[in-house]
Amino acid sequence: MSHTNESGFETDEQLTDEQLFGHLAEDDIVSLSRRERFERILDAYFLAPGRVAWDDWRTRIGILVVTLFVFFGTIGPRLVTPPATNQAPNNLQPFDGGVAALWEEGGWIDIGVDHQLSMGPISVPGIDIRYPLGADNYGTPIGRNLIHATPDMLEMVVAGAIVSVGLAAIFGITAGYKGGKTDEFLMYITDIVMTMPGLPLLIVIVAIWSPRQAWLIGVVLAIDAWPGLARALRSQVLTLREESYVEASRTMGLPSRTILARDISPQLMPYILINFANAGRQVVFGSVALYFLGVLPLTTANWGIMMDTAYSEAHALVNLSNFYQIFWPMAAVVVLSFGLILFAQGMDRVFNPRIRARHAKKVGSDEEQIN
Amino acid sequence: MTRTETELEITHDDRSSHDVILEVRDVDVTFDMERGTSRVLDGVRFDVHRDEMLGIVGESGSGKSMFASALLNAVVDPGQTSGEIIYHPPDGEPVDVLSLSESQLERFRWEEISMVFQGAMSSFNPTMKIREHFEETIRAHGEDIEERMEHGWQLLADLYLDPERVFDSYPHELSGGMKQRTLIALSLILEPKVLVMDEPTAALDLLMQRSIMSLLGNLQEEYDLTIVFITHDLPLVAGLADRLAVMYAFEFVEYGPSEQVIRDAAHPYTRALLKSVPSVDASLEDMHPIEGESPDPVDAPSGCSYHPRCPLATVECTQADPDYHEFSEERGAACFHWEQSGDEIEYALGVDPDEFPESTAAFESEEETVVSLDDVDVHFEQTGLIDELFGKESVVRAVNDVSIELRENEVVALVGESGCGKTTLGKTVIGLQEPTAGSVSYRGQDVWEAKAGSGDYEFDDIRRALQIVHQDPGSSLNSSRTVRASLSAPLKRWRPDLGPSDRETVIYNLLKRVGMKPPEDYAARFPHQLSGGEKQRVVLVRALLMSPDLILADEAVSALDVSLRVEMMDLMLDLQEMFDTSYLFISHDFSNARYLTEKSDGRIGIMYLGNLVEIGPAQEIIHDPKHPYTKVLRWATPPLDPDEAKEANATDPPIREIDIPDPTDPPSGCPFQTRCPDAREVCTREVPELQDTEGAARVACFREDDDHEYWASEPVESDTVSLKTESKAD
To answer: Where in chain A are the domains?
Structure first.
């Protein structure tokens, strides 16, 4: 265990092992097996945060909602027949036949041995569900439409949120920590982007390129969403970098990336996460709004297009018997954004060491110290 | 000797001699918390006498601030106050403060009892001039503005402030000490009968603290005030308070006339506290920390709350809460074993200052120099764009032409008032702050050249060799990383050859070594699960794991409880031997600096306005200060011994002005000439250099040179400050 000293200090050596270890008794030497280390890492980074997250009802609901949407966005389209016009009767009301359909033949649900529900490769005997959410003026089933719109929607949300929060984090944290010329330059760009009017810019970009891939639409929607967050993150980093423990890390000669990753980012995570959820919501709202306005090209199934159709073809806001046509896509948008917000709020606790300590398996005593 | 009751009853007064102004009866303050009920005042029973200065002493978390809030019925929500606090006005019916309505309370506070908090900085609205603060207060209480402002004028003048200037200033234009004094004047503007002060001077310098204390004494006599002074700093109040009350674990454990309490404390806690307080006059061998920690308000120990830490504890103590044993009308201690405490826990107050071993005349060390500073200046420009347009320039000269050498295994303490540039100098020494002029070298290699890549040594090695321990243990550890993770970082960076098991071994052994057992348990904790002292130990260990040559300890013990400071300093010295390192210890407190340096034969440097004015062996600086400023600091450090304290109170501070000059506009010539009692005409022209003296110290004062033209120069005439408190007839 010899340490070679290349720099050639004669008087100044690294701590000798003698100094570091002292005279140890045999039982003082700690040996850690690979397994113990693995368990410790697992507990610190996965199990404890998981327990904290699950302990909070907000996260629990948020996780359920998000999982549900992810399920619909990944497996859903494989199980549900793609929507097409005239698959169902025109203007079919949701839950056709009402509660009575449960025991009567016909209506939206049938139960009995001679019925069976086939969803893609799976078939469930004894039950049959037909267009539970109704159909629009052209006989397109709304439920199928919603589910087949979900994958694109999720792609958009994730791409948009990652790009906007990612850009904000890179710009804000680097500018705040590095300071000086780097800071000036990065904030210069941020300010320029900030002053650009968002919606007109979007319309122009969309008109020129007319993006068809969902992720691209997400990125375009997020393109002007990051400067505010970048500014906010920068100001937080400016105060954090003066904290004693950051200075101590600098004095220890730790590289900047370690300091940023270990000392600064964790303090910012609650803020970044809630903004991540928020950015996701913005993308949902933005895309729905742009589809509704007809700015984005009408390509595939989309909640915005569904709302547009419901509004312009079925006059869902005037003719209340058609209100269900606009209600379902709206509900999808609201529930998804609600789930994202709850999830982000709950995750706040994961980054709070006080709460995490209470849930970690190997943290000494639970009592907090009163100072 | 075992105490007898008669012995302590010498000063038995009759009941009528003390007119009670505040009667506190069985007051509880509780907070409902997630993990139980937190009882931060536990059945407190106490009387405050009219026209006395009562000093309440306790460590942080002992409930002393809660007591202050309870006196004004100002416990913040969701705290619940129960019991009775009866206020006896000079004329009229007694009132129960706790049953007053909100509007009655508004009148009651400020007109009958007023309070001064610690944070003077945040007590003023930064957008309002001081005059408006005064007027607003007077108006809110419907008093005559002109008459009251007259009174305010008088108060400010009494507090050595220029009333005209202060009234027309915005809060940011006043220094911390001036603000605190203004706040005292503001709280007295409606002539309250009682003034409650909660650590009013903790954020200030020694000299300012001491000056304010003396001024308080004057105010008390002039305006017939009852002052309740709450502090963690026993020596500060010891000399001035008429009575002392000691708080521990949310109740009073002992009270009595201050001289009696200090000379012959009866409660084991008071005795242990007196023993643990670092002071300038007690002998070093006599200072011992109190073992253990203060109890948790949610889960206080049964019986006597001190029994887990008490050497005298018996079974009785663990079962029953002792009542006050009243030695006399005005003296009591809540302990079963008050008779034995005197024999079991011995302490001595003050040693004769003349009895110090002569230090070797020429202080020469054989050890190699680790870091040396050569004529270093650090100036900060405060010029903004707008100032530049108007041609205004303001440069803060934080460090001015300082040269200093730090040798191996040496302890050097820098002492000075806040804003004197000691922290900036410290950071310059360890290469965190680039000097504007002069050079900083590490073993002969210029640090900043090495950083630029043109030196012989790798900058990384210099970086590793110079480490820091910060003041606030709360913010010097990353709150989201465990102790293990924090301590692994330096090892991972500098000893990549060590495997995880080796790292674990090192960390566990060091934790054990600094008394954090069991180490497996502590290593897995997050910082919030550690007490202040434990955090500071982890920080120290982290710095030492870098194998540094020099550690900058920036007020490293100031944030700790008084009873833990000695322990922490002992630990620092203990680890110094183990790791072969030097310390640069920065402190505003003479007693801490003295403890650390005298124990390790180190040096003390005194800084004033960015200049190093005196440096030399600890004993010489403490017992034979030469520079006039060092003498002032020495005056400002109160001795514990009641006789000496009284004597010190009776002498005027050797100073002409209380406030430090504006650092952006330093005086010409000697920086201290504006306040120096011995200043002569030449001092306003020429800057003295550090020069050798008869002793081992080096002093920047013309008075040390017998042939200097100083002696022929005209004295600068002006009055010295008079803070003399009349010795009271007890």
So the answer is: 50-93+138-365, 97-130
